[in-house]
Amino acid sequence: MVLMRVSELAERSGVSATTLRYYGERGLLPAQRSPAGYRLYDERALGPGSAEEG
Questions:
Q1: Which single residue of 15, 25, 32, 36 could bond 40 by disulfide (Cβ 3.0 to 4.6 Å)?
Q2: What are phi and psi of 12, to 5 degrees?
Q3: φ and ψ at 30, to 5 degrees?
């Protein structure tokens, strides 16, 4: 499983990091936390068909 920080998810999805953080605060886009406190998202956060299946 590949994890990415909010800045990488923003770049790959075309949604601003601020918006992604807002979604997280509202419980719409849950994130894991790194030991340093960074939000970490897996490829499922990009939506259907974005992660390799199988």
A1: 32
A2: -75, -30
A3: -65, 145
